[in-house]
Amino acid sequence: MTNFDRLSLGKIPGPETGIEIRKSICAICDPLTQCGLDLYVKDGKVIKVEGSKEHPYSVGTLCSKGAAQRQYVYSEDRLKTPLKRIGPRGSGKFEPISWDEALETIASKFNQIKNQHGPESVVFFAGYTKYFRPYLKRLAHSFGSPNYMSESSTCYQAMAMAQKLTFGTPGGPDVKNTKCLLIWSANPFYTNPGKARAIIEAKERGMKLIVVDPRQTPTTALADIHLPVKPGADGALALAMANVIIREKLYDQDFVANHSYGFEDFREYVRAFTPEKGEELTGVPADRIISAARMFAAEKPSAIMPSASPVVHHTNGVQNYRAIFALVGLTGNYDVHGGNFVVRPSFIHIPGMIPTREHEFTQSRPWEEMAPRIGADKFPVWIDMVDEEAQAMHLPFQIRSADPYPLKGLIGFGMNHRMWPDPNGLLESLEKLDLFVNVDIFMTDTCKYADIVLPACTSVERSELRCYPMGYIIFTQPAIAPLYDSRADTDIIYELAARFGLDDPLLHAGYEASVGWILEPSGISVADLEKHPGGMFVPNPVRPPEKKYLKQGFKTPSGKMEFKSRVLEKYEGKPGFEALPVYTPPKYSKELTPELAHEYPFILNTGARLPMYVHTRTFRLSWTNSLRPNHPAADINPYDAARLGLQQDETIRISTSRDAIVVKANLTQMVQPGVIHMYHGDATADVNTLFEGDYLDPLSGYPGFKSALCKVEKVQGKKFNHE
Ligand SMILES: Nc1nc2c(c(=O)[nH]1)N[C@H]1C(S)=C(S)[C@@H](COP(=O)(O)OP(=O)(O)OC[C@H]3O[C@@H](n4cnc5c(=O)[nH]c(N)nc54)[C@H](O)[C@@H]3O)O[C@H]1N2
Ligand SMILES: Nc1nc2c(c(=O)[nH]1)N[C@H]1C(S)=C(S)[C@@H](COP(=O)(O)OP(=O)(O)OC[C@H]3O[C@@H](n4cnc5c(=O)[nH]c(N)nc54)[C@H](O)[C@@H]3O)O[C@H]1N2
Ligand SMILES: [Mo]
Prior knowledge:
CATH architecture of the largest domain: 3-Layer(aba) Sandwich
Oligomer: single chain
Largest sheet: 7 strands, mixed
Helix content: 25-40%
Strand content: 15-25%
Number of helices: 28
Bound molecules: ligand MGD, molybdenum atom
Strand order of the largest sheet: 5-4-17-16-15-6-7
Structural class: alpha/beta
């Protein structure tokens, strides 16, 4: 073997082998994670992937999905050219067209719709990817449409809404400095390795940990106290904790007296939520509720780590989170170091210790100058509290009703119908559009319904700006050229801006100029960032002071922290809109629909994350699939399995009043008896088809993905849907 062969075999970078290490970030999973990548590139091809050791968030680690990066990038179902549909919707029959033809068709059709029906009749949608959102939103607004919307119609915004209703401005947990972390439904060991690392480090220095989760997870395994709440009963648990804190006078009397509104009514309301009542409503033993309440109140500063999704995936989600965040105010832990500290986001929800002009960039036109957003009538509190976008759960309903105005055109960037409850209902409604365009990396089932499909490239083939909470910033450079005839989403957005003929100098100036404009207040330029392809620490990190409310008050109508919401007081008498964080069980539950619960005795809880899957994305990868060989499978407690006479991997039918799917039974102690857990996004058994499209929280419009009612039957001799 020659030296060259040896070096090549070992994939050793250097002039002899022609292998270069290029820096990038992994965009396969959570946009709030994004680990640093070292890509070994030879002849324009990625031949090996490693974690970047110098990246401060991931410090050299990669998860199973990141390690499968090459499979993702070189996946066989990558879209290769722009396509025009020639067969019926869903058939997957397309013919290739040029970029010029595709973009010209889109621009002229959307301009025609704008002239005929108004710009609001064109919808701009963003899927789970976030890097292009500011530019897409600006494109929508400059076009004149208020209907920029995203996956945030099921994620993050409802949690933020609950915080905004309570404090005006959301505050995140200061894990590094807290004495007690109360994780209210998150499992970062599967969902965000950087956060998981921070928790381990904090535990090592003595931080106490309380975790509220119906299941047993790697996170609950680390907890000093685990509160295994019944899904959707979170509000009752928080109110019972408040009951203990108030009764035992463990609350911050100065904060409550001087900085809160509605405390007396709140105190009166929680009187009924004794720990025993709490146990009855939530299934958590009363003594554990008492211990958790005492620990959270005594170990100051303490903080709550919420999640973007599980608590708010219930029809009572926002009210439940309001009750939970009330605990932060009650104990005086709002906007203090080690508490729920308020830091202004720098870019796409992430505080990066730099000031930016993201908001000024995205909101290029005031709402008043545009038509009401989709969902405005149905979800007025969304309009009050969510400044960014329209509510996408109402999209299929407005396409069908054309009320208050018709919707005729839609361009999705990573639009996936399996994100919605009743995904097939959404597909049917899309058929009514004059033009439906989807931009994706892969030929997905949603793309098959589009009139025009555009090929996007993956993150390693393009640039993106990303801030990290420790004051680290990166503007990635393409490690390889876009494969086939694919393009970056941002190129498509800026190209459309030009073809729409919009009067918008920043969009005309281009992507990099826009990034530079957004970053200007930080003093960091695109040229600075290009000198640091692996990212850099921001030169002048800004850490704001504590208790900013002492000077500025709270950004709520009363100027105080609101136990009782002045925004919601307007809706007096409307069920679900109560001004106090009133606890109502999920719309479908033993308590509210006993007859339905008799026929469908299990709680169906969907979408708890698995480490190897991200929604619909990684089912196509054999590496990640090999980690869960029995998929599609639903998790069931062995106690329930025994009652139903079920063995591991036997075939079951899960049905709701709406529909049924056939999957395997995965017997695990992780789940509570009485609850069925199923991962979402799998085309071979799409659990979202079991939900009604309007099974939604009336405040946020979020689907009740975590509390439908279902029944489980053993299926004799029947194979899976896909076999
Ligand atoms: N590997 C992987 N990582 C991901 C994702 C992914 O798909 N795969 N998705 C990303 C996205 S979009 C999001 S929003 C985040 C979510 O991030 P996390 O919130 O950390 O993850 P989940 O597993 O969805 O939910 C956390 C826990 O909530 C529990 N839970 C379910 N129902 C309830 C309930 O009613 N009450 C309470 N208290 N807990 C409940 C579940 O048992 C689960 O263990 O993860 C992100 N990271
Ligand atoms: N039952 C149930 N349903 C759920 C949830 C649940 O817990 N249970 N969770 C909800 C939550 S929290 C979320 S966030 C949503 C997520 O739902 P989605 O955003 O729909 O999820 P993904 O499958 O990650 O991504 C959508 C599409 O984006 C494409 N894509 C990936 N990268 C790029 C890119 O760079 N450019 C372009 N143009 N496309 C790209 C992917 O190929 C995919 O087709 O699902 C929601 N739906
Ligand atoms: Mo999410």
